[in-house]
Amino acid sequence: PRSSLVDMLSIVNCSIVSTTNNSQVDAYVLSESSMFVSKRRFILKTCGTTTPLDCIDDLTRLVREFAGFDTVEEIFYSRKNFQRPELQKHPHRNFEQEVKILEKYFGAGAAYCMGSLNKDCWYMYTMKDFSRKMTSEPDQTIEILMSELDQEIMNIFHKENSSTAQEAREKSGIDKLVPNMKIDDYLFSPCGYSMNGVLINECEDYGLGEYVTIHITPESQFSYVSFESNIPATSYLSIVTNVLNTFNPGQFILTIFATKTSVAAPSHQELKMCGRFGDWCRNDIQHCSFQDCDLTYAHFARFPS
């Protein structure tokens, strides 16, 4: 029930702004990012000084009560390092604290840091219960975390320059990034933008809960844009190029996750061979291979930076 989700999100310090759905997934734009709920998966993206790990108790109770599931098959928690970690609330001031909370609930996981510890890096915790018999379902996620954005583009996402989310979406070209998607977006006051897109499939029960989500913090001092999608593709190069041309960042982190059965599995090798996207040169790449999936992390910066 929506009321139960609202109560759970209050623990995280965010709220529901708007919602859309298709036959596979319910998508919620939040005051601090997005949430996606499908039959066997829950995705919560937050920003600011939210506390997403504080809702684990409530989330597991809701899943047990309303979905009838009593076992967590897989956990994936990730985030970029914070610019001002001292402003975060416990347990999110450092990754070690977060890992302790995750281990308390789920145990037997593994924590990683990818990238440069003294610059931009990306933290990840993952756990999968291999004691249970299960099939490896095709799954994939691409995430692009951009900073040092073009301020002319960022100005679009101020209420004084765009009166509605649709106007901001069309001015910026976001609408061209997400074909065949039902869009739910919101332009915040005085600035900021969030968008969820889900596959258009109201009349047919198909798809695996494909989504796209974009979040924009346009202020010049700490401009930031995130793009994430689980759309299956044999190559993500054109998607990355289109996103970069839309937002023109100074630098970005690119991560690609794919199970070994996913059509996106070859994208890891493709990214390894890709040393640049136009003016953006790769200065770091790392690869993790797990039992049933692979993950590639890469950092790119505009040259000359």
Please characterize this protein's 3D structure.
This protein is an alpha+beta fold and 305 residues long. Helices cover 22% and strands 36% of the residues. The chain has eight helices and 16 strands. The strands form three sheets. A nine-stranded antiparallel β-sheet has the order 9-10-11-12-8-13-16-15-14. The chain has a four-stranded antiparallel β-sheet with strand order 1-2-3-4, with no helix packed on it. A three-stranded antiparallel β-sheet has the order 5-7-6, covered by helices on one side. A hairpin with a 3-residue loop joins strand 1 and strand 2. The protein starts with a helix and ends with a strand. The model has no long low-confidence stretch (mean pLDDT 92).
Features:
alpha+beta; four-stranded antiparallel β-sheet; 8 helices
| Portion in helices | 10-25%
Gyration radius, in Å: 19 Å
The SSE string, one letter per element, is HEEEEHEHEEEHHHEEEEHEHEEE
- Helix count equals 8
Instruction: Name the strands of the widest sheet in spatial order.
Output: 9-10-11-12-8-13-16-15-14
Number of strands: 16
Computed structural class: alpha+beta
**Large-scale geometry:** globular
Beginning-to-end CA distance, first to last residue:
49 Å
